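Co-fold these.
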Amino acid sequence: MNDNVFRVRLWGVRGSLPVSGVEFQHYGGNTICIEMQCGPHTLLFDAGSGLMPAGQALKADGVSDFNLFFTHCHYDHIVGLPYLPALFDPMASVTIWSGHLAGRMSTRQMIGEFMRPPWFPVEPDICRASINCRDFRSGDVLVPHDNVAIRTGSLNHPGGAIGYRVEWGGRAVALVTDTEHRPGILDPAVLDLIEGTDLFLYDCMYTDDEMHRHVGYGHSSWQQGIRLAKAANAKQVAFIHHSPLRTDSELDAIQRLAEREFAGAFTARDGQVIDV
Ligand SMILES: [Zn+2]
Ligand SMILES: [Zn+2]
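Predicted complex below.
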């Protein structure tokens, strides 16, 4: 492995609910899980159903020491957590971070609330890994490894969510999901996170035409992703958090429209690997 690589691996890019079927085969149906490899360091973001294939791949590669960051804990971002093989490996060390519930609930409490009867058959104490829970506040800069700096910011989403900007080796990649802008205004907090990024992954649950029917749901459109990319001089924007109703052919159509407006825009799919 190249020590200087900054590799983004998309394990789950669906929003709201995992889907399967012939009309979802190309873009995939797993909910949000993003891996960033910064040289020798592995960072995971969110524990949607995509965490299961991510965890299997890490196990196959012998990676048993990594950090997992939550944007927030809605079901589509947490449902894969109990299926992360490393949690049950006594040799593994997993550091889990969250900040969207700062002052209301700790990361450890969040996991304990989610992974317990009657919602799940067993409690977190069945996990054999060394699990370190870290709490932070929006605006904190996290340094999980030397030379890896992660800036954080609050997103406008019911119950709160955190956006992340990861800086490593002179490059920057941001993850911004789930978030909503006030009509006609691009959220300055989002612009700040994505300014000049090599790539940002962005909540594109809706189209502009659909937005007015979903005010208050805390999501965005792919057109807003492009407006943000242009305003913040980002090189690339990857659309993620696809609606569970959005078929492959509809996402292909969005891709064709988007690349006409901004050369660095693309519709992301499960399994995609991007080096920045
Ligand atoms: Zn979501
Ligand atoms: Zn959400």
